[in-house]
Specification:
Blueprint lengths: L8 H19 L6 E2 L5 H19 L5 H17 L8 E2 L5 H27 L7 H29 L3 H27 L1
Parallel strand pairs: 1-2
Helix pairs in contact: 1-2, 1-6, 2-3, 3-4, 4-5, 5-6
Length: 190
């Protein structure tokens, strides 16, 4: 008999974190982290797919997974096409910590809103409180992106390696996964 059943909050959170963090790490085989202008629409599509696919496998009992994948991918492509960059794969050019945090919160809130809105379209037919997902996504990214930007800049300065920026973005994805995972668990179990 398994110690953790498939519906326990702990197992769900661990799977959600693994899906998001693993999706980000896996996407690095195809996407080179860079500044906003350096990340193209194709890379955003690859990144969106790398995240949406594992998420949809976790949510497959609750939602129509193809819709989740297509709409999530579309949100990342749209954010990149309008010049905002691939949120979660791009870093700001600024080396001023307060500016990085400020723009991280702004980009995070806007990017999280767009992603949450797209995903809301996928979950609204099956979840009565689905509108809350938009708020959770927006707030999660608004908190996580400044943290990741700050850690990335500090590590970049300390090590003189751009890898510090990648570690900062990995922390961003970890924080987003934790914050959205709590709400996603409610979504699955409503």
């Amino acid at each position: 008999m398994p110690i953790i059943s498939a519906k326990t909050p702990l197992k769900f959170m661990l799977l959600w974190i693994l899906a998001n963090f693993g999706g980000f790490l896996g996407s690095l085989f195809w996407i080179e982290i860079g500044e906003r202008a350096e990340i193209g629409v194709v890379q955003a599509a690859i990144g969106g797919l790398a995240i949406a696919l594992p998420q949809s496998l976790i949510l497959k009992e609750t939602i129509f997974t193809i819709k989740w994948i297509i709409l999530t991918l579309a949100a990342w492509v749209l954010l990149t096409a309008i010049g905002m960059g691939a949120v979660g794969w791009s870093v700001p050019a600024s080396e001023i910590l307060p500016l990085r945090c400020y723009f991280g919160a702004i980009y995070g809130a806007f990017g999280g809103f767009a992603i949450g809105l797209a995903q809301w379209l996928a979950i609204r037919p099956s979840v009565s409180w689905a509108w809350q997902w938009i708020i959770v996504s927006s707030l999660s990214w608004a908190v996580a992106l400044p943290i990741g930007y700050a850690v990335g800049m500090i590590l970049h300065r300390l090590t003189r390696l751009f890898l510090g920026e990648v570690v900062g973005l990995a922390i961003t994805w970890l924080v987003v996964a934790i914050l959205t995972g709590m709400t996603a668990y409610k979504l699955v179990n409503e």
